[in-house]
Amino acid sequence: MPRSSLITGISGQDGSYLTELLFSKGYEVHGLVQYGRRELCDPRVKLHYADLTDSSALLPILERAQPDEVYHLGAQSHVRLSFDLPVHTVDVTGLGTLRMLEAVRQYQRISGRLVKFYQASSSEMFGKVAETPQNEQTPFHPRSPYACAKLFAHWQTINYREAYGMFACSGILFNHESPRRGINFVTRKITLAAARIKLGLQDKLSLGNLDAVRDWGFAGDYVEAMWRMLQHDTPDDYVVATGQTHTVREFLDEVFSHLDLDWREHVEIDPNLFRPAEVDILCGDASKARRVLGWQPKVGFQELARMMVDADLHATPDELSLLEAPRVGDWG
Ligand code: F7E
User: Which of 24, 72, 90, 312 could staple 195 via S-S, CB 3.0–4.6 A?
Assistant: First the structure.
């Protein structure tokens, strides 16, 4: 019998890479998907419609999927947007995790099966950082409704492990990107705009804080760490990061120079794209994941930036016009 897995947030960037990884390892893959998002999923996935704000749907889905492993990736994951939708973000990202944990606990009790649970925790929980680099012992100081919601979910995961003995792990993932990244996150916003500028489809690109420092890795590498956490003998929490940092400005340099363009001729600073509270720097120390799980990132910063902009440059005209330039008032 193949092992069964259930992924929430399966239509997102990480869900798509994790789906490929699990199929390559022979798993049956079930996905929890919101109405209207099914087109974004691999056709081999067994889909279950649900919303993380509605707990009534979750236990029946677990009973149908009978998963050995649950990867809980579903969230309202945009930090800037969370300032405009704080209650919704806490409902989906924070309470949504609690609903999922409780459903898994109930399912284990009813079925007598062991279910391993992965929680997508975030480096945003470190926020106004107490030390650099950040590791599993670094104190948290969240700086957005999103980060507060993720911290709630993180502690709930730990509490379900300690209180009920659940095999529950949190991966504290630093920023991870790819050609499949949503177009309102800064890396993809930049690579898509650069490609469109190169092709004469766009001239200007509005951005916010170019001084923000991030530890950017490749999403394809990071889903491998998620899987390894659930294969280990004991459940635990791990930082997943490259340990290398760059500013948004450096990402612009890398992408635009690759296309023989000068970003200074195209980028406009829009004060609306700054956040009410910013996370200035994130830099992860993933030595525990390396030591215990044997995990390490394969794709570096330059390769990542080029992979993303090359993919956007070679997208079909249809894809490029669908991915239109952000409009005035967009929060991305
Ligand atoms: O912003 C700055 C912005 O939206 C990165 C999510 O996956 O990673 C992600 O959160 C930086 C910030 O990602 C624009 O102020 C400048 O400092 O790409 P981002 P994020 O907020 O770091 C963590 C780990 C998660 O968990 C989240 O779910 O770039 N920035 N100008 C901009 N950011 C955006 N989006 N758009 C701009 O125009």
Answer: 312
CA-proximal residue: ligand 1, atom 29 (nearest): 186
How does pLDDT run across 37-89, given as a tens digit for each residue? Answer: 877 788 999 999 999 999 999 999 999 999 999 999 999 999 999 999 999 99
The two structure tokens encoding residue 203: 């001239």
* Predicted structure pTM score: 0.97
Q: Which atom of ligand 1 has the smallest separation from the CA of 279?
A: 17
175 in contact with ligand 1, CB cutoff 6 A: yes
Question: Which of the four CATH numbers 3.90.25.10, 3.10.129.10, 3.30.1370.60, 3.20.110.10 does domain 183-215+245-282+299-322 have?
Answer: 3.90.25.10
Do residues 92 and 53 touch, judged by C-beta distance below 8 A?
A: yes
* Dist CA 52 CA 32 (whole Å): 9
Report in angstroms the alpha-carbon separations of 309 from 35, 214, 253. Answer: 30, 18, 12
Class of domain 4-176+216-240: alpha beta
The continuous run of DSSP H or E covering 254 comes out as helix 248-258
Tokens of 144: 């957005």
Q: For residue 142, give the DSSP letter.
A: -
Query: For ligand 1, is residue 172 a contact (CB within 6 Å)?
Result: no
Distance 319 CA to ligand 1 centre (A): 23
